[in-house]
Structures are given as C-alpha cells and as structure tokens.
Amino acid sequence: MANESRPCPCDIGDRFDYGGRGQEVQVEHIKAYVCKPSANTDKAVIVIHDIFGWQLPNTRYIADMLTTNGYIAICPDFFVGQEAWKPSDDRASFSDWLKTRDASKIDKEVDVVLKYLREQCGAKKIGVIGFCWGGAAVHHLMLKNPHLKTGVSLCGVIRFFEDRYSLLHPTFFIFGEKDDVIPLEQVTLLEEKLKQNCKADYEVKIYPGQTHGFVHRKREDINPQDKPFIEEGRKDMINWLNKYI
C-alpha cells in the first residue's frame, strides 16, 4: 500500500499463471470466487484480496490452498465492481483511488458473505485472511465482527488502524523484514500496543529478508532463496486457522 514517503502501492511481484479450481458466483450484490473441498465441512475462510482485486490469480491460488486443507474458501469482490489497481495506473492517482476503497467500510459485504456461507454452504465456523489492503480489513473485522472465529493479516497496512488494538478474536499478523511499505518500527509499535491493550490471543511474526506480500506475491520456483519463508508463512497461516476454527 502506501505511506507518507511512498505515496503509491507496491509492485505486483510475480503474477501467477493460475486459473483456479473454484467458480465465480453472484452473492447478492457481490461477485465472488468460491472453492469447496470434496468432503463436507462446516469450516470456511473469507479471503480478502489486496489492491489488485479479487480476480488476481495469486489470491485464488491461496484460496484453493485453503480448500485443499479442508476449508470452504470464498474471495468476494470487496471493491464491489470498482476497478482494481493496475501496475500501469498513474501512481500519482493512488491516494484518490484509495479514498473510494476504504478497508474499514466492508461490513455490509461481509454480512452478505457470512449469510451466504451459513445458508448456502453450511458453514458454522468462519475465519478470515487478507493481504495488504485486505490485511488491514482483517484487522478491522477482528476489532468489531462477533461472528468470525479468527483472522490472519498478511502484510496488512498497519497505519489504517494504528490506534485500535482491542481485538475480539485471535489474530495472527505476518510481516516481512524488508517490507518497504510497512516499516519495522510500525510493526514494533503494533506489538507493543497489542501487549498493552489486547486480551485475545495474537501473534506478530516477522519473516527474515522478506518483502511486501511475499506469501502470495512470490513464486518459489523463481525465488529459491525465499522459498523456505514463503512455505513457512503459508504453513503458519494454515496452522493458525486450524487452531482456532
């Protein structure tokens, strides 16, 4: 995302050549990508995309990974038809673009998705994960939504909610040591404030040498030095979900 010294979003990283195992559905006023495991389950995870939108193959790859681990996964279009950011867009326009896509104003859409998961998919235990913009949205939901069991924020933009720490649910925060979008001093402050104010379980983990979005924006085959950390981040995410859902 952006900060004062860097008014534009990060690079998209490695775009996966991936089609997805799920299907696109209409959930009331929202389009969504849904993937279900072969065996029946009452566990589901909402996947909140980053600035590059719900159709990014990288994000669908992670949704399908959740499904192979036994979860119904749904990635809704939280921009609700508005254009996702494109690497070719004018960086000077990013602040204006972002003003109409507020990570704290997704509650209506989340309620619609929760209803769909319960009534159409039989889900009873539901968690949420999110990347970058979506990671900030996870932070927001963990502060206020009583219907979610847990959340994982992956490279979530701290500054959006930097004064709010009283989480309702267990939350796992994943950051990269070399993230030039989220400075380490912000991560340190987040951890200190959570320690002072948060009564729910939480964990803040920094992965050595990793840049922004490493869990879903890097391909192991062309970033061999990062492969252990990419795999560790994904495994940690799954383990957290398994623990609390």
From TrEMBL:
GO molecular function: hydrolase activity
GO cellular component, one term: cytosol
Pfam families for the chain: DLH
Domain Dienelactone hydrolase: 30-244
Location in or out of the cell: Cytoplasm, Cytosol
Database matches in Gene3D superfamilies: alpha/beta hydrolase
Tagged with keyword Membrane: no
Record's protein name: Carboxymethylenebutenolidase homolog
